[in-house]
Amino acid sequence: MSDTPLKLFNSLTRELEIFEPVHAGQARVYTCGPTVYNYQHIGNMRAYVFADTLGRTLSWKGFSLRHVINITDVGHLTSDADEGEDKMEKMAAREGKSAWDIARFYQEDFERDLARLNNRPVQHPRATDYVDAMIEWGKKIAPDHCYELDGGLYFDVSSVADYGRLARAVTDDGEGRIDTVEGKRNAADFAIWRKTPAGETRQMEWDSPWGRGAPGWHLECSVMGRNLLGFPLDIHTGGIDHREIHHPNEIAQNQAFCGCGSLSEAANSGAKIWMHNNFLVERSGKMSKSAGEFLRLQLLVDKGYHPLAYRMMCLQAHYRSELEFSWGGLAAALTRLKRMVMAVERLSDAVSAPTIDHAKFASSLAKFTDAMSDDLGTPVALTALEDALAVKKVDAGIKRAVIEHMDNVLGLDLFDLKRTDLRIRPKDTQMTEAEIEAELIRRKQARVAKDFAASDAIRESLAAKGVEVMDGDPLGWDWKLG
Fold first, then answer.
1. How many of the other CB atoms lie within 10 Å of CB of 199?
2. 357, 394 in Cβ contact below 8 A?
3. What are phi and psi for residue 469, nearest 5 degrees?
4. Using CA atoms, how far apart are residues 434 and 319, in angstroms rounded to an integer?
5. What is the rounded CA–CA span in Å between residue 217 and residue 175?
6. 3-class DSSP state for residue 258?
7. Residues ≥6 apart with Cβ < 8 Å to 345
8. b/e string for 207-240 if b means 16 or more Cβ within 10 A?
9. DSSP conformation class of 157
10. Dist. CA 197–CA 152, nearest whole Å
11. Which of 48, 96, 388, 476 could lock 364 by a disulfide, CB 3.0 to 4.6 Å apart?
C-alpha cells in the first residue's frame, strides 16, 4: 500500500483530482465493455489494459476493489448513433447462427484475450440479463424526460441540466455523429427503447410499454452500473470515443433517474470521476478489417509476439496519449520485456522478503510511487522498475520483493514468464522448435570446426523457413522467428 494520494484526471471536470472514495476503503469501478459480435481489435483491448492498470493501482493503494466490465449483447447499432442495424442481429444473419451463440462465442474469446494480457478477473454482466431492469428504468424516467415516436421511446436531452458537458465535440447542431430521426425534438435526442419495425422479427426482442423491441445501447450501462455498484460510482472508464456520445447519454439517463441537478457537482453524473483512454493509431492502413488482416491479439501471436509485449507497448505510453502501433514498436516492446525477464530469472531461487524497505531501492520506489500516483504514469513507472532491476550487491529476497511490488501494479507477470514463453513460433513457420534447436546445434558445431560454408548454408536454410539466427545477440536469445 502507498500513502501518497492517488491523483486521477476527471474528464468531466477537466482536472486532476485526488481520489476520495464514496465509501471509505472501497473503490467501485465500471468500465464500458465490448459489443460481442466480432473479435476485439487491439485498439479496443487498450481500454482494458488501462482499466486493469487502474484497478491494480487502486488495490495497491489499499482499496477494496469492485470492478465491472459489461458485455453488450444487445442494442448496439452499426454506428454509435441512433441509426443502422443491430450489430448482433447482423452478425447472426451473416454467420447463420443465433444471436445468443454469437454473443457467447465472442465473449469467451474476449475473456481469453483479457487473460492473455494478464488482466485480473472482474465481473462481466450481460446486457440481456438486465432487460427487465432497463424497462423499469424507462418507465420511471419516461413521464418527465422522454417521448414516443414510431420507432420507439426517445430521451429529450433538453430535459436535464448541462447535457453534453463531458463531450469535446459538441456543435450548435448537437453531437456530430448522430443522424436525424424524423420527429426528434433535438438532434442529440437518443433512443431508450427501439420498437421492432412492423412486419419484422428480431432474435432478441422483448415486450415493453412502448411496443415489442429492444433497449437502446446507452441504457444498459446506467442500469448495470447502478444495480451492481450503486450511485454514485467512484470511477467510470471507457475509450475516448465514448466521451462524445455514449457517456453523455448515459449521464443524462442517470440525472433523469436520480432527479439530479447540474453537473457542476460531478457525482450528479452517476460517477465521481470519468476516465478515458486515448486511441491506438495504426497509420499504415494495412491492418483494417477491409484490408483483410484484422489487427487483433491472435494476429500478434500468429506473427511471433507474446501478448504481454502488447501490454508492455500500452504501458510505455500514458493512457491519455495516443499510442501509435507499428510492428517495429511492438518488437522493441518485446525486447524490453525480454530484458526484464532475463533480469528477473536471476531472482527465481530467492524467497521474497517480508519488507521492501532498503536504502538501495529508496530512489526507485519513490520514483515508482510518484509516477503511478500521478494519474497512472506508467512510462516513468517502467523506468523505475528497470532502475530496481539494475541494483546490484543487495539481498536477493529484498530485491525480489521490490520487483514483485512493482509488477503487481504493472501486471507484466515477470516471475511467471520464461524466455521460452517469449519465443513464439509464427503460424506460418515451417519448423518445430525442436527442429530449429537441432539445426542450431549443427551450425555451432560447423562454426567450431571452422566450416563456415556449412554454417552459412544452415543459416540461409533457416532464414528461408522463417527463422532468423541472432549471432551475437546481447540478450542471449540465440534465434528469433521472423
1. 5
2. no
3. -80, 135
4. 40
5. 16
6. helix
7. 418, 419
8. ebebbebbbbbbbbbbbbbbebbebbbbbbbbbb
9. G
10. 10
11. 388
**Whole-angstrom Cα distance, residue 197 to residue 209?**
15
Please name the residues in contact with 314: beta carbons below 8 A apart, sequence gap of 6 or more.
46, 49, 50, 323
CA distances from 401 to 1, 103, 357 (A): 13, 41, 10
Residue 414 in contact with residue 344, Cβ under 8 Å?
Answer: yes
CA 222 – CA 256 distance, rounded (Å): 11
**What DSSP assignment string belongs to 302-366?**
HTT--HHHHHHHHHTS-TTS-EE--HHHHHHHHHHHHHHHHHHHTTTTPPPPS----GGGHHHHH
What's the Cα-to-Cα distance from 189 to each of 149, 154, 160, rounded to whole Å? 12, 6, 12
At residue 234, what are phi and psi to the nearest 5 degrees?
-75, -50
Cell of 448: 567450431
Query: What pLDDT tens digit does each residue of the chain (482 aa) get?
Result: 568 999 999 999 999 999 999 999 999 999 999 999 999 999 999 999 999 999 999 999 999 999 999 999 998 887 777 777 888 888 998 999 999 999 999 999 999 999 999 999 999 999 999 999 999 999 999 999 999 999 999 999 999 999 999 997 544 344 444 556 889 999 999 999 999 999 988 899 999 999 999 999 999 999 999 999 999 999 999 999 999 999 999 999 999 999 999 999 999 999 999 999 999 998 876 555 545 568 999 999 988 899 999 999 999 999 999 999 999 999 899 989 999 999 999 999 999 999 999 999 999 999 999 999 999 999 999 999 999 999 999 999 999 999 999 999 999 999 999 888 887 777 777 778 788 888 888 988 998 999 988 888 888 888 777 677 767 665 655 665 55
Strand order in the sheet with 190-195: 146-149, 152-155, 190-195, 213-215
**DSSP secondary structure string, 371-396?**
HHHBT--HHHHHHHHHHHHH--SS-H
Are the beta carbons of 66 and 104 closer than 8 angstroms? no
- Chain centroid to Cα 145, Å, comes to 33
Burial grade of 353 (CB within 10 A; 0-12, 13-18, 19 or more): middle
| 458: helix, strand or coil | helix
Give the global pTM: 0.90
Residue 128 DSSP code: G
Residue 9 CB contacts under 8 Å (≥ 6 apart), including other chains: 15, 16, 17, 275, 320, 375
- The helix (run of H) or strand (run of E) holding residue 235 is strand 233-239
**Interatomic CA distance for residues 189 and 192, integer angstroms:** 10
Run of H or E residues at 10: strand 7-10
